[in-house]
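Hey, I'm writing a tutorial for new members on how sequence and structure tokens pair up, and I'd like a real worked example in the thread rather than a made-up one. If someone can provide the structure for the chain below, I'll link this post from the tutorial.
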Amino acid sequence: MRLLFSLCLAVAFSSPNVRGQADGNPHDWDRVRRCDQQDYSPACGVCEGVGGIPTGSRNDQIELTSCTIVGAPDEMPEPVAIQWGTQWTLPLAYEVLIGKKTDPACFQTFPGNDSVGELCYRGQTGSKVYDMLENLAIREDLEVTTDIGINVTSMVLHQGTNFWVVNDILGVDQCVCTTIKEGGGFDKLYYPVQYNWIEKMVYIGREIIGIEYLNEVREMNHWAFGPHHMWTDIDTGNIIRMWQPFNGLQVYPGGVGQSNVDSTLFSEIPPEKCLPSPNLLPRWRIGCDDNGYPLPRDDKKVSKRPRDVVGGKDLSRAEEKVPRGHYKGMNFVEMSDVLNGWLNSSTSTQACLDWDVEEIQQLQALLYLARESQFDTIYAKTIDNRRLREQAKELSFNWRGLNSLASAHPDPRIAKVQRDGHCHEAVMWYVHHLTEEMKEIIRSSGVKLPLLSPMHHGQGICSELDDESAKRICDSYQEKVTCASCHSNELPPNANTPSPRS
């Protein structure tokens, strides 16, 4: 199941757990990146555990911030108390969310209580509203950066034990209804973080520290509890920066002292997009009951929801290696014409030549998020050409590289080769990696699909050019048009022509 969680990092601070502080530091982070306030010897001191902007778990995958020691606690005056209001509005926050990697694209990331295993690193920017006086809830409105190369607009609500994430993914709405359990699997459910959590923090000392995203270097007070660190303004006590090596980095330019909130931001609970559609059109709802609240955990295991189970026609199509005759053509051109006919009869389409390659890649990013992973499991077992060959981060990286090669190539036909390959691949993903229910959601959202280009470049320009850039683009193209091996009678390049029967 592919969820896109854009979660409130403050929740990760609500229950610092001793087990997480004694996890053996499996990634061998040095004391600048990680220095817990407990269970570390010698004790964590000034300019330790400061962290920075991480992109991965290796020690070379972080841009550490600058830090200069001003003084240890016994050398400094009594620090101004930390400010965390009972109500506050933060118009802008910068974050890198860190959590366990439970899916290839890091869409189920939630801060955990240890650093064991592979971790995800995801940037997000937006506003936060905190209200523990009236609504007893937290709301975030975020722009989330994904590994697949697109940004997703996300609204997050946490009230009581209920957690909602409403995402706008290139115009397609998704709602996730869930509850958060300690460490992802313990019995204790998380409520929104209470304002008195800051009373646990221990004063580490004073430092001159670089503040990411703000391009500032400021003298600040450093506090810690377990693996959690924060830096506060020396005059006001406002929290400006927080770091936890396996939960994330947060920069709060205005701090989170007492301020006003707009209560209407909490008036739609549960969010309308988490309810069944009033016009009976399908909605991309995950883990939601008919009232828009999270299903009980036991119900989630047995309930059938879109993209939960591959069955019926979906399963038959995935297990069928050779397409039926009415999905075939005698050659590449006829195959494209036949399949385009089926596409035109079932969804909204647009000719491949009318797309920019970046537009198709954005569509593919949406399809990647909406895909059902069980399909790929079936394909991978038999090395089926329909299998996905790369994970999200590698896909995005390779796309950008090929875009650059195509735009710089002196022969403009190479750009068409790249575009046409993406048209074929996008159609294949839509047909063979989405359930019928998800296809209906995509169709009802007005998303268009590209038609297949009838020109087979492997027998055209790709056979003419032999420079390295053209070769890379053509190799990528050949991988994307493997549908011809099943949907047409056309032989692969360099194959021997069979002798006719006598």
